[in-house]
Protein: DUF202 domain-containing protein
Amino acid sequence: MAERYGSVELDNKGSVARDHLALERTFLAWLRTSLSFASIGIAVTQLFRLNTSLSTPANPSDVHLRHVGKPLGATFIGVSIVILLIGFHRYFESQHYVIRGKFPASRGSVVVVSMIAAALIVTSLVVILAVAPKAIER
Structure:
């Protein structure tokens, strides 16, 4: 298993270089997706904090809103790490198979990331609608 993560040197015959560069571009897309989720997590945390600091502290829903923002933002950052690890694993797994002349279809990782993203979107919508219905009306 450790040999999959080591350095490799291949003869550039046929489409070898193109295939490996495509794998690197795909990994960079995973990295970009991971950074997007991390940015959303930071933005959510700051937005919930900014939203509560601008209003009067006597409003109990604002205090509750601030307590929900941190876990939601931390969840986005945690998912960002998971997506980066999936991309890392996928890159080396694909490289391992391409060297042997095969290519595994990426159904599992696509399904996992899609389900995680859908769950986060639905959770964010529920949190926003349930925690601060008065803040939305303002």
Summary: The first helix runs from residue 16 to 54. DSSP finds four helices and no strands in the chain. The CA atoms of residues 48 and 67 lie 9 Å apart. Residues 16-137 form one domain.
